[in-house]
């Protein structure tokens, strides 16, 4: 008879699911950025709407990543979703520090953190429910 480890000894995070969620989020963000850039270039949309559009795109990207991650893992949607959101936030923060030497203001950092956390959390919860 094989020994079955107790539930507390099993890994709580599925790293393959997290990786898939992060890839989905980054792919959607890149595709959406290309689409938004094209839209703003070829239409008369004012650039003052760009911060709102990019925040919505960030939320949808992280939501989709959290959804994919929790759907693939099949459990612990909140954990998988918020982890995807926080890792995407860290990637954005590191890339911003690398390419924009002046960095971001504290308000902007907190705003992006909240957007990523909320999108990942909601995506994770919805993904388990599907």
Describe the structure.
With 130 residues, the chain is mainly alpha-helical. The chain has one domain (15-35, 50-129). Helix content is 76%, strand content 0%. It contains 4 helices and no strands. It has helices at residues 15-42, 50-73, 77-99, 106-129. Helix 2 packs parallel to helix 4. The radius of gyration is 17 Å and the shape is globular. The model has no long low-confidence stretch (mean pLDDT 88).
Short description:
This protein is an all-alpha fold and 130 residues long. The protein has 4 helices and no strands. The chain starts with 14 loop residues before the first helix and ends with a helix.
Features of this protein?
130 residues; mainly alpha; 4 helices
Number of domains: 1
* Helix-strand category: mainly alpha
Strand tally = 0
Strand content: under 5%
Enumerate how many helices there are, as a single number: 4
* Topology order in helix (H) and strand (E) letters: HHHH
**Distance between termini?**
35 Å
Helix content: over 70%
Largest sheet: none
Mean pLDDT, to the nearest integer, reads 88
Which word captures the global form? globular
- Spatial extent as radius of gyration: 17 Å
Poorly predicted residue ranges: none
Topology:
Blueprint: H1 15-42, H2 50-73, H3 77-99, H4 106-129
